[in-house]
Design brief:
CATH architecture of the largest domain: 2-Layer Sandwich
CATH topology of the largest domain: Uridine Diphospho-n-acetylenolpyruvylglucosamine Reductase, domain 3
Helix content: 25-40%
Main location: cytoplasm
Function: Cell wall formation.
Enzyme class: oxidoreductase
Number of domains: 3
Subcellular location: Cytoplasm
Order of helices and strands: HEEHEEEEEHEHEEEEHEEHEHEEEHE
Protein name: UDP-N-acetylenolpyruvoylglucosamine reductase
Radius of gyration: 20 Å
Largest sheet: 5 strands, antiparallel
Number of strands: 19
Structural class: alpha+beta
Distance between the termini: 15 Å
Strand order of the largest sheet: 6-7-13-11-12
Length: 305
């Protein structure tokens, strides 16, 4: 907590004590099971609390970070200073007409399952994406030919000043695995996905097929951050890594998956430093062998030890 000690009392005046954790190990909250401590890990219970926390961070000039479940993120071993806000208590998913309205802390998988239950088609591609709805918007998540920008109508966000805004999908500049959400400093609170009426059995068949493909090809038995690299033009990252004979190679407890070369797995209590070193090893080797620069899809945040 260090120099931010005085902030603790102010956070407690905004939200309950159970929602404010001090020097919290972030790896407990990360899909990758990697990462150091946060000075404050805060899980607000209401929109008003989110707004007040954002305003507090600005007034006190405290570093502020938004964190979902970290399925496409590596937190360095030194952790994150200041306030880390998690929307984990915002998990409601509802139908409105032919749309699914989901809060930011809900899993995008659960939004796709709600769409199935309501016989709405369009979110099938998301049935195996492990991130939150907020994270899915942040990186325009996609799989098997579909992506968030195909179905997103609008989002409710809080900006850096603590103001609540409704923004359209077009205003988020969604493109391949990116958006302007980090640049704008938005905190996503809710997303509305426009879908089409469909047949339950047909939607389920497609989701079952995609789930089978995912489970049979991806190393889900170990923590990971999913596909580490973006697809380079004209190539497949996994094929380049496989052809570089890097599968099974690693550093410490992290290694390139033997099941899917595009994944790096936390096989044995890896540190973030281990994981990042494996990423760099892969990039260097592929560049040396094929002259192709692999760009990270996964984000890296935080401080070194």
């Amino acid at each position: 907590m260090g120099k931010y000690h005085h902030v603790y009392e102010k956070l407690l005046s905004i939200t309950s004590e159970q929602n404010v954790m001090v020097d919290e190990h972030l790896k407990k909250h990360m899909y990758t099971r990697l990462g150091g401590k946060a000075d404050f890990f805060v899980t607000p219970s209401s929109l008003d609390e989110v707004q007040q926390i954002v305003k507090l961070a600005k007034q006190e000039d405290i570093p502020f970070t938004l964190l979902g479940n970290g399925s496409n993120l590596i937190i360095r071993d030194g952790g994150i200073r200041g306030i880390v806000l998690s929307p984990k208590r915002f998990t409601a998913i509802n139908r409105e007409g032919n749309s699914i309205v989901a809060e930011a802390g809900a899993r995008i998988i659960d939004a796709s399952r709600k769409a199935l239950d309501e016989e709405l088609s369009g979110l099938e591609f998301a049935c195996g994406i492990p991130g939150t709805v907020g994270g899915a918007l942040y990186m325009n998540a996609g799989a098997y030919g579909g992506e968030v920008k195909d179905v997103l109508r609008d989002a409710v966000v809080v900006n850096r000043d603590g103001d609540v805004l409704k923004v359209t999908a077009d205003q988020l500049d969604l493109s391949y695995r990116s958006s302007n959400i980090p640049e704008k400093g938005y905190i996503v609170l809710q997303a509305t996905f426009d879908l089409k009426p469909g047949n339950y059995d047909e939607i389920k068949a497609m989701m079952d097929d995609l789930t089978y493909k995912r489970e049979s090809k991806q190393p889900l038995e170990y923590p990971s951050c999913g596909s580490v690299f973006k697809r380079p033009p004209g190539y497949f990252a996994g094929k380049l890594i496989q052809d570089s004979q890097l599968q099974g190679k690693g550093v410490g407890g992290a290694e390139v998956s033997t099941k899917h070369a595009g994944f790096i797995v936390n096989k044995d209590n890896a540190t973030s430093t281990d994981y990042i070193k494996v990423i760099e090893m892969v990039q260097e080797t592929v560049k040396e062998k094929f002259g192709v620069e692999l760009e990270r899809e996964v984000k890296i945040l935080g401080e070194d030890n």
